[in-house]
Amino acid sequence: MEIDRERAAMCALNRVFGYEPNVTHRLIDVLGSASALFDLDRRSKEELLSPWSKHLNDLDAGMVDRAAQELESLSRRGCRFLCVMDEGYPALLRECEDAPAGLYVRSVSDDATLFGQRPAVAVVGTRDLSLYGRDWCRKIVEAMARTKKPPTVVSGFALGTDIVAHSTAVECGLPTIAVLPTGIDDVYPRRHWKWAERLAQTEGCALVTDYPPGTGAIAVNFLRRNRIIAGLSRATILIESKQKGGGLITADFAFNYNRDVFALPGRVDDVRSAGCNALIRNRTAEAITDTEQLMEELGLGVPTRRSSAFVRDEIHALYDGTMNPGEVEFLIAVADCIKKNRGITPDQIATRMDCDFGRVATATGLLEADGIIETDLLQGCGIKTKIG
Q: Is the pLDDT of residue 179 over 90?
């Protein structure tokens, strides 16, 4: 694939001024194009940037050639470089004064599908996610999937909240975009490499970064990554956050971009909710108290409700033909009891249904193993979000 010189020049400028994208924007405003800068003699570059600029030695014509070679190599691996002036560049991100000069994208979908067809909502939070936070993260993403205008879920691919948001989106059929703190040729954390491959090969999903290939995951990179998450999204939802954390920084970026911010309130004495509670107290964020209301405030419409019939159909699909009809109906009855009494334990189910505890324990174990229900540390049962 032949790379045009202007795209290669933009890629080169992004590598040089990645932490100062405003410099790239100003240079293009003055010169009319990125490639024009590399055509100037040394003295002209000094007049533009000052004789003491640390970047002067980087801005030679050879850098454009190296950038073109880099983009050709990435193209062979299914990646592309999207310039800020390209039609497919995310419109909301372009509005931000510190918008990246370009984005590296890895996806099977085109730019219009990724950034132009659906609203984008960021779901972020702590890596140290509690069961409460995990449950609400999944509830919120699952509710988005049942609205009239299902959005693209944007997050940072980190442990905890981010990967729960991404994985739940995929399970529910929602597109999701992972904004990486590394180059497009790397994955962080490494344990998520299978998810990276899955997103890269799933229609509507993508891996995105403004970091050049070869960039590792160092602390300062996460801050730059967080502004892209906020900039891509019409709203940011903070699930849990300590008093300091990346999710809180993303929410602050979103607020400063004049985007909507929502936060999940938590216990006063829970350190994982301190950041959320502070945002709500300072009126930086709206408190999340109900998924239906949240969906309406996001402009997505009220989510449709999933009935007990959905759970019944799922159980029939799993067990008809391999289990006698009476046992299948018993599993349905147990699941229905759990749906109506979230957090109920197997012994409480046995009491409520007036049946043998061992039979209930076997049924809940089977339902959990097959993904119909989930249990917490105290054996409280709930219908798994993607099912009910």
A: yes
Distance of alpha carbon 115 from alpha carbon 232, whole angstroms: 8
DSSP per-residue codes, 11-32? HHHHHHSTT-HHHHHHHHHHHS
Tell me phi and psi for residue 180, to 5 degrees.
-90, 150
Give the model's pLDDT for residue 304: 66
Taking residues 77-102, what's their average pLDDT? 93
The structural domains of the chain, with segments of one domain joined by +, span 1-76, 111-297, 308-383
What would the CATH number be for the domain defined by 111-297?
Answer: 3.40.50.450
- Contact predicate 83/7, CB 8 Å: yes
Task: Give the whole-angstrom CA distance, residue 315 versus residue 335.
Answer: 9
Which pLDDT score, from 0 to 100, does residue 308 have?
Answer: 57
Q: Rounded to the nearest 5°, which phi and psi values hold at 209?
A: -160, 155
Asked if 295 and 147 count as a contact pair (C-beta separation under 8 A), the reply is yes
Characterize the bridge pairing of strands 79-83 and 102-106: antiparallel
Cα(367)–Cα(382) distance, rounded to whole angstroms?
Answer: 11
Triad 180, 186, 192: Cα angle to 5° = 70
Q: What is the pLDDT of residue 4?
A: 86
Mean pLDDT of the chain: 89
CA-CA distances (angstroms) from residue 179 to 87, 93, 223, 225? 20, 13, 12, 7
| pLDDT average, residue stretch 235-252 | 92
Here the tokens at position 63 are 């850098």
- Identify whether the C-beta of residue 122 lies closer than 8 Å to the C-beta of residue 233: yes
- Sign of the dihedral through C-alpha 263, 264, 267, 270: negative
Q: Which helix (H) or strand (E) holds 181?
A: none
Predicted confidence band of residue 52 (pLDDT cuts 50, 70, 90): confident
Q: Who contacts 50 (Cβ-Cβ below 8 Å, separation ≥6)?
A: none
pLDDT value at 303 more than 80: no
pTM: 0.77
Q: Report how far residue 236's alpha carbon sits from residue 252's, in angstroms, rounded to the nearest whole number.
A: 10
How many Å apart are CA 104 and CA 82, to the nearest integer?
6
CATH 1.10.10.10 fits 308-383, yes or no: yes
